[in-house]
Specification:
- The protein has 3 helices and 2 strands; from the N terminus they run ααββα.
- By secondary structure, the protein is mainly α.
- It has one domain.
- The chain has a two-stranded antiparallel ribbon.
- A hairpin with a 6-residue loop joins strand 1 and strand 2.
- The protein is flat and about 55 Å long.
- It starts with 31 loop residues before the first helix and ends in an 8-residue tail after the last helix.
């Protein structure tokens, strides 16, 4: 039973160009990186502690957050389509900046969209005029 609603859900007005497709939950627990981190994190941290070479707290926090990212047991939101009343569970993310491929990719896409949609529209004349003159950093 899928949602055939023609509604467009977007982060900001005009950001989405087409209706969203069917939601498929990302399953990080099936990836090789997740399996390696899950299997060896505690051993790795214990060995570092034995050697007196502790990891910075933010690194351990990133690794532990990655193991919880996208896992329904660690938190989720229930979303409901207003048109067809279909409900889905959407797992919460860690919003990490270093280890989690899902969150770093999302951050990269958000940054690229910001640069294209917001920053790019403000400074296109500056960039294009500099390129027309053939200027480079070294020639200034």
């Amino acid at each position: 039973m899928g949602c055939d609603s023609a509604h467009v859900y977007e982060r900001a007005p005009g950001a989405a160009r087409a209706p969203l497709g069917a939601y498929v939950r990302h399953t990080p627990e099936t990836t090789p990186l997740y399996r390696v981190v899950q299997a060896h994190l505690e051993t790795f941290l214990a060995e570092r502690a034995e050697e007196g070479a502790f990891l910075p707290r933010f690194v351990e926090r990133e690794l532990r957050g990655y193991l919880a990212c996208g896992i329904l047991a660690h938190g989720f939101a229930r979303v409901r389509c207003p048109a067809c009343a279909e409900e889905k569970l959407v797992a919460l993310s860690c919003k990490g900046r270093a280890i989690c491929p899902s969150c770093t990719t999302r951050r990269m896409h958000d940054t690229a969209a910001h640069l294209v949609e917001d920053v790019g529209t403000q400074c296109t004349s500056f960039v294009s005029s500099g390129l027309r003159r053939g200027e480079t950093r070294r020639s200034r």
